[in-house]
Amino acid sequence: xxxxxxxxxxxxxxxxxxxxxxxxxxxxxxxxxxxxxxxxxxxxxxxxxxxxxxxxxxxxxxxxxxxxxxxxxxxxxxxxxxxxxxxxxxxxxxxxxxxxxxxxxxxxxxxxxxxxxxxxxxxxxxxxxxxxxxxxxxxxxxxxxxxxxxxxxxxxxxxxxxxxxxxxxxxxxxxxxxxxxxxxxxxxxxxxxxxxxxxxxxxxxxxxxxxxxxx
Length: 215
Fold this sequence. Notes:
The protein is α/β, with parallel strands linked by helices. The protein has helices at residues 10-14, 26-36, 80-96, 125-135, 149-155, 166-176, 192-206; strands at 18-21, 39-40, 43-47, 53-57, 65-69, 101-106, 140-144, 160-163, 183-186, 211-214.
């Protein structure tokens, strides 16, 4: 049967999404895949002299939606820059392998704290990262508790879902300290608004006042 104009290809409808992750996010991806019941696609990772590498999906991703999970927080094993460039190379490779849609799952979005100019000739790193992600052919970003949600919205030209772990943290603390007198502290003035939201949620969960402070 001939497909009419505007109809979705059957491959995009019937083929379920798959999850892939690089070795530095492997254990986290395994837990996410089990919880979400999403099949994972193995990635071949080959390292060469001088720090170069090759990334290749070992299963066909043609016509599929691929979820790329990569935490961009630096560690002694993999720096921020290394994690970011490996994510971009994997996204390019998935595009060339025929993936229908590429969604980046980024629990931590790096360089998001430098989101505005405070001095002459200052960089805006949040926008630069957004342009790199978009140029790699990523269609959507899902991230968690960024430094400045408004700057996030202004930086990307692709859809971005900004999620918050605050309700989960409220439940966790509410279960551990149901009758305790608690104080929510912000590490700086810039985090006071987020701390205030957390304090209000915690008060509603506990049913008694919670203090607020900042350093």
